[in-house]
Amino acid sequence: MYFEIVELGYFIDQIRGIKKQMRGYVTGVVCVYLGCKLYEVELQDYGYYQLWDWQIKEVM
């Protein structure tokens, strides 16, 4: 799935340089916690990272 970040989750995202509107691909699901999925993603110009399902939306 190709996606765009629509919401920053935690302060650690900002410290690590993650920004809204960054795009990338979902490469797998790390875990499901209380109904939310934590995805492993590959961000353009950043590399691998982990984001929750509510932080991203699919784009074409």
Describe this structure in words.
It is a single chain. By secondary structure, the protein is mainly beta. The chain contains 1 helix and 5 strands; from the N terminus they run E-H-E-E-E-E. Strands 4-3-2-1-5 form a 5-stranded antiparallel beta sheet, with no helix packed on it. Strand 3 (36-43) and strand 4 form a beta hairpin. The radius of gyration is 11 Å and the shape is globular. The model has no long low-confidence stretch (mean pLDDT 94).
Overall pLDDT: 94
Largest sheet: 5 strands, antiparallel
Helix content: under 10%
Structural class: mainly beta
Radius of gyration: 11 Å
Order of helices and strands: EHEEEE
Distance between the termini: 9 Å
Number of helices: 1
Weakly predicted, low-confidence segments: none
Q: If strands are numbered along the chain, what order do they take across the biggest sheet?
A: 4-3-2-1-5
Strand content: over 45%
Number of strands: 5
Spatial shape: globular
